Amino acid sequence: MPSVSIFTPAPQFSNDVADIVRVFLGKIALFINEEGGEIVIRHQEETTPDGMLCRVSLNDQYTREELRIPESSELLEKRYRKRQLKLLVYDCLKEMTGFAPPWGALTGIRPSRLVYTAMESGLSLDAACQQVQNTFDVQNEKMQLLHDLIQVQSQYPQPTEKDVDLYVGIPFCVSRCAYCSFLSEEVGKGKQLEPYTEALEQELAQSLQLIDELGLRPRAFYMGGGTPTSLPAPLLARVLKACKPFMDRVSEVTVEAGRPDTIDREKLDIILQSGATRISINPQTGHDITL
Fold first, then answer.
1. pTM metric for this prediction
2. Radius of gyration of the chain from Cα atoms?
3. How many percent of the chain have pLDDT more than 70?
4. Residue 92 needs a FRET pair 20 to 30 A away by CA distance; which of 50, 67, 158, 271 works?
């Protein structure tokens, strides 16, 4: 397993940088602002009269730098600062390895969100896809897949101002996948499952009250995670019972069952009796090596 040291004035972005490194090197041992890595990534930032200069070097051999004008919004500044760092690290690793990842510098989930954001600024679908491809170095085949996906999604009825889609998160899994960027943790001995369920029941009741007060119309319901079926059957039944007032109002109810090893007949019966119209088994990939 290769070891990587990341020296940075922004350690809060270290895990995001590590995600980029894993695209090229697979599983790594990570050191943050510590010696010990066979591969050393050095990140520096410098305020100049023209903006913020970001510089990245890899083993003091591969270097990239870029000037960026800081954003006035704290949220946007964090987003673009992190993105700039990840892209510079990506460029260094691409030069070092000679490898061009199919999805380029994209990591995590929902790449379509980037295209939709670009379209919200006034770009056409084609122009938005081109912008994302140029920014993140996505290969043509994957970009065409993303383009086709958004074309299909655009045919569905779009929500009105009063429509809401409901997502209930169960942030627990029997084990954590290496690629996962979700806020979740392993079930372990299950000590947090009961208190989480109790808190979720209270929040669901309050959310239903808020929806009624605002005159909103629930449109679709999705329970995801984590892995909802990692809950023991009694707790899964409690959560779904608390969700029933939402589920009765929508036309589509999905419960995620992303790990087949967490599914049994009892849990399937509980989901069916709750009123769910489908489950999502979530095949993450068809590549055996990746699995």
1. 0.75
2. 22
3. 98
4. 50
pLDDT-derived band at 259 (thresholds 50, 70, 90) equals: confident
Please indicate, yes or no, whether residues 139 and 193 belong to a single structural domain of this protein. Answer: no
Residue 127: domain span = 112-153
**Model confidence at 174, in pLDDT bands (50, 70, 90)?**
confident
Two tokens, residue 38: 């066979």
Q: How far apart are CA 285 and CA 263, in angstroms?
A: 19
Q: Identify whether 209 is part of a domain.
A: yes
Nearest residue to 208 (alpha-carbon basis) of 221, 196, 224, 198: 221
> Environment class of residue 77 by beta-carbon count within 10 Å: exposed (0-12), middle (13-18) or buried (19+)?
middle
Number of domains composing the chain: 3
Residue 60: is its pLDDT beyond 80?
Answer: yes
Tokens standing for residue 232 = 């023991």
Q: Domain with 175 in it: what CATH number?
A: 3.30.750
